[in-house]
Amino acid sequence: MPGVEVKVDGLSKSFGRANIWSDVTLTLPPGEVSVLLGPSGTGKSVFLKTLIGLLKPEKGSIVIHDTDLVRCSESRLYELRKLFGVLFQDGALFGSMNLYDNIAFPLREHTRFAESTIADIVAEKMEMVGLTGDEKKLPGEISGGMRKRAGLARALVLDPEIILFDEPDSGLDPVRTAYLNQLIIDLNAQTDATFLIVTHDINTAQTVPDNIGMLYRKHLAMFGPREVLLTSEEPVVAQFLNGRRQGPIGMSEEKDSAQAERELAEAGELDGLPPLKPQLEPSAGLPQRRAVGRRRERVESMLHTLPYAAQEAIRASYTDEAPTQWMPAVDQPTVQMPVVDEGWHHRS
């Protein structure tokens, strides 16, 4: 059974007079892996907390299994939260509990399983994340990467249909981040759950997701198939993917347009987008991700509505002939962007 579809429509969130973001609309396709990017301070973690019902938005809806989480009763919200597994930035483990008890905690809180059944489930999830044999270790005795994996095992024990990852690469070096990215793909192949990852890591965005969104200037600037954002010529996208100073993103907030134009003029000609990397595949011995076939059918139905460079990248990915650099197409007709329900969203 694939993970559940999550439909977000017109979501707005503020703290007092401070608006975090407005009119966020997207659909997380069932069983697929999606990534949410954005400069620091754009409210990506706030979005995750709103998605799971920990924060209440001022406007909009979040529909799962035909129920709007924003307007449902507290008892119904409590039940729907069981559909979610969450990996927090630091793993959020209890320091006084060993890994076994940390991972068993949701089962003891939310089920009436016998301890023998709990032991079987914990052993299965610890094996999935590569922690077999570490059951008796305390969180303070293990590395940051192991804490992330323990937190992920705990997120999996109730077999959630939706798994949220809040900056899973936070505090990890590039090698451990690469291992974690592969683990995420492997887990998606084994669970077919719907994944949403909030991250700053460009390599994660380039190699892990089926879909990518970007929060910028208090709106969802983009959301759709990964190839759309990774081939976009939008200045904010190019700046973010290249990790360079020149562009509309500033140190603490977006720059005004005059400052951004001055910097670009001073810098001269800048390199375009980084090379398009292939998406990670499950490790040897694991099944293929069931979401791949569903995604291909979905994306092919909307292919004609996508920007030309994205169309070419998608076609190339089907023939394993992905190019190393995408250039703007010459004399191509203007493409009308489809609506969110078709899987692609763009705001200027």
From TrEMBL:
Q: Which GO terms describe its molecular function?
A: ATP binding; ATP hydrolysis activity
- Region of interest (Disordered), residue spans: 269-295
User: InterPro entries recorded for this chain?
Assistant: AAA+_ATPase (IPR003593), ABC_transporter-like_ATP-bd (IPR003439), ABC_transporter-like_CS (IPR017871), P-loop_NTPase (IPR027417)
Q: Per the database entry, which stretches of residues form a coiled coil? A: none
Q: Which UniProt keywords apply?
A: ATP-binding, Nucleotide-binding, Transport
Its domain of life reads Bacteria
Q: Which CDD domains match?
A: ABC_Org_Solvent_Resistant (cd03261)
Recorded hits in Pfam families, A to Z, give: ABC_tran (PF00005)
Which PANTHER family does this chain map to?
Answer: INTERMEMBRANE PHOSPHOLIPID TRANSPORT SYSTEM ATP-BINDING PROTEIN MLAF, PROTEIN TRIGALACTOSYLDIACYLGLYCEROL 3, CHLOROPLASTIC
Q: What is this protein called?
A: Putative ribonucleotide transport ATP-binding protein mkl
What organism does this protein naturally occur in?
A: Pseudonocardia sulfidoxydans NBRC 16205
